[in-house]
Write a structure and sequence with these properties.
Keywords: Cell membrane, Membrane, Transmembrane, Transmembrane helix, Transport. With 461 residues, the protein is mainly α. Helices cover 82% and strands 0% of the residues. It contains 16 helices and no strands. The chain is globular.
């Protein structure tokens, strides 16, 4: 085995892949945090309304991940198998497919925004905020479709630092835009929610343009430009074989969360605002877990493509231990600091009291959620994408949704009842995913013929 070959594979250590992703995910969380924090200066009602709309936007992101997530796994396996031409063709097909899909979703969100928003029983003020946001951000969703796709394929090719830099730039632009339009800085008009929507749309558009340029200059593309505009059944099939089940699991989750949000609107604007604030704080708990799950998907995909099944089996457990350890340490810190953290968002004592109680329940919820994020990503990377979505649909709709209503609404426990239902959901699925990985059934699910001419050497640190 040549020394050059050893070096290129050694660079694929889990740590080398994950740390830039950790920064990227942290920046994404900071973006959400800053949006909510700055909107809190407008009103708790503005926060509540955008919380509802962002639930819809997350639903569309899941739809875009049909292609983005599938492409990332397929590209990672092709790279592990040392098939550069196939990796490049997969990238081209994924970009064209998601661009067309993104344009379609943008049109649907804008033209059907009224019937969509009517599902949430919003008051007149909240409805007005949500309507404006959906027109501006919803109309430019196609930019996010391409951002997610190119992010995924760049990370699969090991360019996680490049993704981190673009994410940093996008977040800085968004935060500056929020500040300018919310506080009227530099003589700009104070347009609140409208300004936040404009800042979000413009930052994503600029990020998309930078990523397209980066894709043509930084990635070793081995196909002609015209081949990017020719959809190939073989590559589309492989992308969707992973993408549809994988996104299906996320789709089920987001649909269930939308239904639960409808339940919470019954409890009133205070409960809705509390949920938005609490979820943003809980995002701090899952930053490392989300980064580890993304890194795990790339890492396991490359190991599976290289035929290193036993090594992949052991590495998942190592990554899971790190994710659980970090997540729980952060969970304890955030829970202890709950009162102080909530006071940054609101002065409403009811929101602060309820929110800090929900953070305590987060200590129980977090190990289950972290395990799901990491193990499901590893299963997906191996090609075993159907089992997580089937179990996800069964448990989410058989436990999370009905028990949220039964405990939260019927028995009157409010958000605490909803959180108990979420805990049951995450833990049941976590146990199922753990035993699926342990069974090693996933080792027969690879999408590509494994490489046989090199070994994978990865540092244990």
């Amino acid at each position: 085995m040549s020394s050059a070959n050893k070096t290129s594979i050694k660079q694929l250590s889990l740590f080398a892949i994950t740390w830039p992703i950790f920064i990227e995910v942290s920046l994404q969380a900071l973006l959400q945090f800053s949006d909510v924090f700055m909107l809190s200066f407008v009103s708790d009602e503005a926060v509540a309304s955008i919380g509802v709309v962002n639930q819809i936007m997350m639903f569309t992101f899941v739809l875009f991940n049909f292609t983005a997530m599938g492409a990332g796994v397929v590209v990672a396996q092709y790279i592990g198998a040392k098939k550069q031409k196939d990796a490049s063709l997969t990238i081209g097909n994924a970009i064209v497919l998601n661009l067309l899909f993104g344009l379609l979703i943008s049109a649907i969100v804008v033209f059907l925004r009224h019937p969509i928003l009517s599902l949430f029983n919003l008051s007149a003020d909240l409805y007005e905020y949500a309507n404006i946001y959906m027109i501006i951000v919803g109309g430019t969703l196609f930019t996010q479709a391409l951002v997610l796709t190119i992010f995924s394929v760049l990370q699969a090719k090991g360019l996680t630092k490049d993704v981190m830099y673009v994410s940093l730039g996008m977040n800085v632009l968004n935060i500056v835009g929020n500040y300018v339009f919310i506080f009227g800085a530099f003589g700009a008009p104070q347009i609140g929610v409208t300004g936040v929507a404009i800042a979000t749309a413009v930052s994503r558009l600029l990020a998309m343009l930078v990523l397209i340029k980066m894709l043509t200059s930084r990635v070793d593309i081995t196909i002609k430009i015209k081949e990017f505009f020719t959809l190939n059944k073989e590559y589309i099939s492989k992308i969707l074989k992973i993408g549809i089940p994988s996104a299906g699991e996320h789709l089920s989750y987001n649909m269930s969360q939308i239904v639960i949000t409808v339940f919470i609107t019954i409890l009133g604007a205070t409960a809705l605002a509390t949920r938005v604030y609490t979820q943003n704080l809980l995002m701090l708990l899952v930053i490392f877990s989300m980064a580890m799950s993304k890194g795990m998907q790339i890492y396991i995909g490359q190991l599976v493509g290289a035929g290193k099944m036993d090594f992949a089996y052991r590495e998942m457990y190592r990554g899971l231990k790190w994710a659980l350890g970090v997540a729980m340490a952060v969970a304890v810190i955030i829970t202890i600091s709950g009162d102080t953290l909530f006071s940054f968002f609101t002065s409403d004592p009811d929101i602060i009291t309820l929110g800090t109680t929900l953070l305590l329940f987060g200590l129980i919820l977090e190990p289950g959620r972290t395990s799901n994020l990491v193990i499901i990503s590893a299963l997906r990377a191996s090609g075993d994408a159907q089992f997580p979505v089937i179990m996800g649909i069964v448990v989410m709709w058989g436990v999370s949704v009905p028990f949220s209503y039964i405990l939260g609404i019927h028995f009157g426990y409010g958000l605490i009842g909803v959180w108990i239902a979420l805990i049951l959901d995450e833990w049941i699925r976590a146990v199922l995913m753990f035993f699926r990985w342990r069974s090693k059934v996933w080792q027969d699910k690879s999408l590509v013929e494994p490489a046989k001419d090199h070994e994978v050497q990865v540092e244990s640190g």
